[in-house]
Amino acid sequence: MSGHGTPIPMTSRRASPLKGEAHVPGDKSISHRSLILGAMAVGETKISGLLEGEDVLDTAKAMQAFGAEVINHGGGEWSVFGVGVGGFAEPENVIDCGNSGTGVRLIMGAMATSPITATFTGDASLNKRPMARVTDPLALFGAQSVGREGGRLPMTIVGAAEPVPVRYEVPVPSAQVKSAVLLAGLNAPGKTVVIEREATRDHSERMLAGFGAEITVEDTEEGRVITLTGQPELKPQVIAVPRDPSSAAFPVCAALITPGSDVLVPGIGLNPTRAGLFYTLQDMGADLTFENPRTEGGEPVADLRAKYSPDMKGIEVPPERAASMIDEYPVLSVVASFATGTTMMAGVKELRVKESDRIDAMAKGLRANGVTVEEGEDWWSVEGCGPEGVKGGGTAESFLDHRIAMSFMVMGMGAQNPVSVDDGSPIATSFPIFERLMGDLGAHITRSNG
To answer: What is the pLDDT of residues 135-174, one digit of tens each?
Structure first.
């Protein structure tokens, strides 16, 4: 499956109850950061459980282009021989980041304070996404950027020859922006400070500390203040990547809406800045439990057990939870369709600038399948049809967005009639084994072109 090639129409239809274990891939956020920080350390970083979707593989290629040695040993086992902070070489060719907003923004940050020039591009979806939210703070370090109108890719970044540390308040909750600034701060002298009024996923802070950077995090009246001391020598690490909670969302939600289902999803990272969906589902009355809680690689982990939940109720999702579940709102809206009552999701304007305008994309697809949706600039609501009330029978446009495509495949597992998407090819960017994994549980997903 390719997120860059021929469209692959897909259809999901109601089948038997979903049963068994769903071993989802490694966490995408941690996979990206493992490769980038491994490339900025001195020596060999060993990574196990790396997500081998196209997004992460594009980041691995990019690290090679910047001079790191990256070796795939097979089975999710990788080695990165880093070049040290400030050691990036100038790439010979354009860096293609495919579909990955995380990849391109973090890599831009990592190279922005080295005296090199790099040009970035991506697929049709990524090339529509705004990059100014990253290039504006990178300019404070002394980096320059030239891109298409609206700060869009393709874009060339000229790294700062004499970078200066910055103090930057992130204007909207974004782990990508925060992380890009912190990565840029690694090669700036002195202390770089990032302030976020709303906490976002903190994998970068945890991993920077693990690699030996001097970093402090303090909650103050002005927000969460992160202070990084520049120009450390990062020490190589042995990293076991937890399984991705964003990928776990799909088998979990499918089990909740498919009659008779009982699915175990082992080894899921439950970092508090990422687990908002699961708490929200519990608030709705989902039969979802955390088993065998433990800590792996500095991250909280548990096995998730999800069972069919016909008594779920619509709720008002706390807006302050948005940052911890921003990628999961599409599939949450599918679950909300099978609940009783209305689910309100507010404080989610970030969804407008993801791989697609996810509010618009989900609203159109849900309506095509008989669900009532209302929307505003930073909110939307879904009127539940009840556990057996979603008609289905429609085709949703995926807008080159993997999470939109997978969300509607989940919907088809519980709807009265099959649900289709015009193009499921982007699923490969983040969850290349999605079809096989769901099929092993008992789902029925077919491709229209064979």
So the answer is: 999 999 999 999 999 999 999 999 999 999 999 999 988 9
Kind of pairing between the strands at 10-13 and 215-220:
unpaired
The tokens of 193 are what? 């400070």
Q: Which of 58, 202, 327, 423 is catalytic?
A: 327
Q: What backbone torsions phi and psi does residue 80 show, to the nearest 5 degrees?
A: -125, 120
Q: What are the C-alpha distances in Å from 299 to residues 25, 178, 302?
A: 16, 19, 10
pLDDT for res 297: 66
Q: Are 221 and 404 in contact (CB under 8 A)?
A: no
pLDDT for 76-98, tens place per residue?
A: 999 999 999 999 999 999 999 99
- Catalytic site includes residue 96: no
Residues in Cβ contact with 30 at an 8 Å cutoff, skipping those fewer than 6 apart: 203, 207, 239, 241, 242, 269, 299
Fill in the amino acid letter for 423: D
Beta bridge partners of 444: 13
What is the Cα–Cα distance from 69 to 77, expressed in whole angstroms? Answer: 14
Mean pLDDT score of the chain, rounded to an integer? 95
Name the strand (E) or helix (H) holding 363.
Answer: helix 358-368
**Of 184, 316, 330, the residue nearest 249 (C-alpha):** 330
C-alpha pair distances (Å), 242 with each of 57, 109, 135, 290, 409: 17, 24, 30, 15, 25
pLDDT of residue 362: 96
332-382 pLDDT, tens per residue? Answer: 999 999 999 999 999 998 888 777 899 999 999 999 999 999 999 999 999
Q: Give the separation between CA 293 and CA 300, rounded to whole angstroms.
A: 7
How far, in Å, CA of 181 to CA of 167, rounded? 10
Beta bridge partners of 146: 156
The residues, ordered by sequence, that sit 6+ positions from 370 with a Cβ below 8 Å of its Cβ are 385, 390, 391, 392, 393, 394
Q: Which helix (H) or strand (E) holds 170?
A: strand 167-170
Angular region, 440: left φ>0, alpha ψ -120 to 50, beta rest? alpha
